[in-house]
Amino acid sequence: MSVVLVAQRVHYAGTRQLVSRVRVTSLLHVQALHTGGGYDVPFRRCSAASRIAVVSGNHYGQILPASHSHILNAGELLPGISVRDLASRRHSLVQTLNDNAPAAVTRHVVAMASAPQLHTAPDVPCEYRQCTDYRYLCGFEEASSVLVMEWGKNDDKPVTTLFAEPRNEKFRLWHGPRTSLENIPAVYGVERALPIDAMRAYLSENYGSGKRSDCMHWYSASSSHDNDLYAKVAKQLDDIPFRSNVLPHLHAQRVVKSTPELQLMRQAAMATESGFLNMMRACNHGDGVSEWTLNSRLSAGMLESSVGRTSRVGLSFPSVVAGGARATVLHYLAKDMFIERDEMVLVDAGAEVHGYVSDVSRTWPVSGTYTATQRALYEAVLDVQSHAMESINTAAASGQAMSINKLHSLSLGRMRGNLRDIGVMPSNLSLNDSHTVTRQLFPHALCHYVGGDVHDCKYVSGDYQLKQGVAFTIEPGLYIPADTAPSCVPSRFHGIGIRIEDIVVIDSHGNAELITNLLKTVDAIEHHLNTSTHADSEMEPKH
C-alpha cells in the first residue's frame, strides 16, 4: 500500500463553509482561499483520527451524517453506502462461505485485522487508509482493530464483534478522538464491541485447545492488513482443524460494484479529469515545463474540481509524471527533471474519493502538437484501446464470454498489426519474432480490476467472465527505450513511451461503459493544448 499526499477538508469555527479554492505554492503546501480571507493549510500526511465527528457531545473517530450532512445522508457510513448495506455484505459472504465449507464444518469464524498505521518518522503518523477488505465489511476507519464474524452452519448471518482501542485522552490530545466501545454497535451495526486487549483471551477461550473440532477458520492474511496484529489473531486460532482463505470469496463479491460504489468511482474520475486538464494548461508556452510543476498542477486541479469542493479528495497512488525518454520507465516516480518543448509527457494518476479510486493515463506533447512519429505511435496505442472496447461490445451482442485475459490476448494481436503498419517493425518479420517484439514493447497487462484499490480484487482470476458491475482498466502502452529497443525498430521511434488508460464498467447489456471521460484523441488533445488559457501559469526558469 502506498502512502500518498492528500489535502484535508477544513471547517472553520462558526461556519460550515468549506475551502472553496486552492492554489499549489509548492509540492507540499497548499494555500486555501476561504471566503473572507486566506488561510495556510498544510498539504501533508496526517493521522486518521483527525477525521472526526462530534454529535451531541460525543466524539467519534470518523465522519457521521449528524456532523457531516453535506457528505452523508442519514444511516450512511460512506456516501450512498448505509449501515444496512454493510450488514448485507456480511450476510452475502456468510452464505458463500457456508456453500464452500466441508460437510463436517458446523461452526465458522472470520477474523480480519485493520490496516497498520504507517509513519514517516517514529512519532509522525501518515494519513491512515483503512484496508479495503476491512472497510467493505464494516466501515470502521480506525487502526489497531480486528473484525470477528462468527456463525453456525445453518445461520444466514454472523454475530459480528469489533475489537478496538478504547478512548485514550493522550491519543485524543495528539490525534483526535476514537469512537467509544459503547457507541460502536449502534454506529456500525455490529452486535458488540470489545477492547482490543481482550481479543486474544476471547479467541483462546472460544477456539483454543481443541475446543472446536468442527470449526472452519477463514483466515485473511494480506499485505494490506496489520500483519503484526493479525499474527496475534492467528495464533489463537491455530488449533482449529479446518482452514481456508476468505479473500478469494470476498474478492469475488467485491469485484461486482454496486451503484453507489460506481458513483464514488465516477466522482474520483471527475476529480482526476480536472487534474489532468490543469496539467495540460501548464504546457505549450516557454521552452518546456518541469515534471514537478505538472505534478503540483495535478493535485491543485483535483482539489479545485467540483468534486474537490464538496468531498475529501486524495491521490489513489503516487503519480507517474514522466517526460521524454523517462516515459519508457513504467513506474517512473522521481518527477525531478525538465521536459523539453519537443518531448511528450506520460502521466498516470488518479484521485481517490471516500475510499474509491480512479486510474487514468494520457500522453501528450509539451509543445501542443504531436510530431508525425509521436502521432503515429499514439494513434497505434489508441486504436488498441478502442478495439478492446469494441471487442467487449461485440462479444456481448453475440452472447460470448469475455475476460480481461482474453482482451489482453486480442490486444497483442491488434498491437502487432499496428506496429507493422507504421513501420516500427518490418512487415516480413516472422510471426514468432513479431510477437516477441510486440511483447517487449508492450510488456504489461492490458487490464486490471479497480475499485476500492487501484489494483483491486487480486484473488479474482483474469479468466473471470466479465459481467454487469465489474470495473477494470483498459491501458495499452508502448515503451521503446533507446538502449534496449529491438534491433529492427528504426531509431526515429527510440526514447518514446506512451500509455492511454481509462476505466470501464460492464453495463446491464454487457457493454463497456466508460467511467473516465477525459479527452484522448489527437485532435481533441491538441485543441485543448492550443486553446487553453495559460495566464494563471508561470513556468519556472530551466536549470
Low-confidence stretches: 1-50, 534-543
How helix-rich are the residues, as a percent range?
A: 25-40%
* Overall morphology: globular
Helix-strand makeup class: alpha+beta
Which sheet architecture does the biggest sheet show? 6 strands, mixed
Strand adjacency order, main sheet: 13-12-11-8-14-15
Question: How many strands?
Answer: 28
User: What value does the average pLDDT take?
Assistant: 87
Give the C-alpha Rg. Answer: 25 Å
Beta percentage is: 15-25%
What layout of secondary structure does this protein have?
Layout: E1 21-26, E2 29-34, E3 37-42, E4 53-55, E5 58-60, E6 76-78, E7 81-82, H1 83-99, E8 107-113, E9 119-121, E10 124-125, H2 132-138, E11 146-152, E12 159-164, H3 169-175, H4 184-188, E13 192-195, H5 199-207, E14 215-219, H6 227-236, E15 242-245, H7 247-254, H8 259-280, E16 288-290, H9 291-304, E17 313-315, E18 320-323, E19 338-340, E20 344-349, E21 351-353, E22 356-357, E23 360-365, H10 372-398, H11 404-421, H12 431-441, E24 471-474, E25 477-480, E26 496-499, E27 502-506, E28 512-514, H13 522-531
